[in-house]
Design brief:
single chain, 96 residues, alpha+beta, Alpha-Beta Plaits, two-stranded antiparallel sheet, 2 helices, 6 strands, 32% strand, Asp23/Gls24 family envelope stress response protein
């Protein structure tokens, strides 16, 4: 895990996930239960641990399996461990 504690790590993971093409956002789970809880705030969609979890929404038209694979590879490289990726929803693509 990168130095800087869970807050810095969660922020780093969130930024890396959101930079993956096809990811339209982080998702807190069906009941908002997925997140990293920090003093005074929460990073939704990221759960750090021995096997970390990332819950995302993917833009419609994206290759869902490829996006999930890229998210897994990106986060695994950052954290140095296994990562579960859950695609919670597909959102309309934003026109450019």
């Amino acid at each position: 895990m990168p130095a800087g504690g869970d807050g810095a790590t969660a922020d780093l993971v969130a930024a890396a996930v959101l930079s993956v093409p096809g990811v339209s956002g982080l998702h807190g789970g069906a009941f908002g239960e997925v997140g990293t809880y920090l003093p005074g705030r929460r990073v939704s969609g990221i759960r750090l641990g021995a096997t970390s979890q990332v819950h995302v929404t993917v833009a419609m038209g994206s290759d869902v399996l490829a996006v999930a694979g890229q998210v897994r590879d990106t986060v695994s490289t950052l954290l140095g461990g296994p990562v579960e990726v859950v695609v919670e929803d597909v959102t309309p693509a934003v026109p450019h």
